[in-house]
Amino acid sequence: MDFEVCVKNEILGDSKRIMSMKQLMTYNVCALACAKEAAKDGNPHTWGMWTVSPVKNTEQQVQPDGADKPLAG
């Protein structure tokens, strides 16, 4: 399962990226906690500036090296 990770931060700027659970394990503790909850119930979860939502059918959106890629839509 992949996740859309949204960061809302006035100083660092806002960002979105698609990440796997494996990528989240080394990315951010808050984002990882949100992803674990999102995987359980299928709903978005927020902790501070992090909001993580489960994403379906993202095979073409995630680059093999895990680099950022703009989201469609």
Features:
alpha+beta, 4-stranded antiparallel β-sheet, 4 strands, globular, disordered C terminus
Furnish the topology, listing elements before pairings:
Elements: E1 2-7, E2 15-20, H1 21-24, H2 29-41, E3 45-47, E4 50-55
Tell me the structural class. Answer: alpha+beta
Radius of gyration: 11 Å
Largest sheet: 4 strands, antiparallel
Q: Widest sheet: strand order?
A: 2-1-4-3
DSSP helix fraction: 10-25%
How would you describe the oligomerization state of the chains in this entry? Answer: single chain
Strand fraction equals 25-35%
Number of helices: 2
Task: Report the span from N to C terminus.
Answer: 20 Å
Number of strands: 4
Overall body shape = globular
> Spans with pLDDT under 50 lasting ≥5 residues?
60-67, 69-73
